[in-house]
Amino acid sequence: MDSIEFDAIIRHPRTIIHIDVDCFYAQVEMLRHPELQSKPLGVQQKNIVVTSNYLAREYGIKKCMSVEEALQLCPELALVNGEDLTHYRHYSAKILKILHRFTPLVERLGFDDNFLDVTSIVQKYMNSGNDSELNISINMEDEHPVGKVFGPSEEECPCGCHSRLIIASKIAAEIREQIYKDLHITCSAGIGHNKLLAKLVGLLHKPNQQTLIFPCSAAMLLSTIESVSKIPGVGQKTTQLLMSNNIKTVDDLRKTPLEALEKKIGIDLARKLKDNAEGIDETVVKPTGKRQSIGLEDGFKSVSLIAEVESRLGALLRRLTELAMEDGRIPVAMRLTVRKHDFNKSASGKRETRQCALPKHLLPSSKSGIYDHAKMLALAMKLFHRTVDVSKPFHLTLLGVAFTKFEERSSGKNSITSFLRKQVAVQSVLDISSEEGVSDINLGSPMSVNQDSNDGSAMSTTSSPISKPIGTNNQTVDDDVLNEIEPLPKKTRLEVWLSGRRESPSNEMADLRLSPSSPMQLSPKIDAAVLKSLPIDIQREVTRSWPTTSKPKSNNILKYFIANK
DNA sequence: CCGGGGTATT
DNA sequence: AATACCC
Ligand SMILES: Nc1ccn([C@H]2C[C@H](O)[C@@H](COP(=O)(O)OP(=O)(O)OP(=O)(O)O)O2)c(=O)n1
Question: Is residue A331 a part of any domain in this protein?
Answer without folding.
Answer: yes
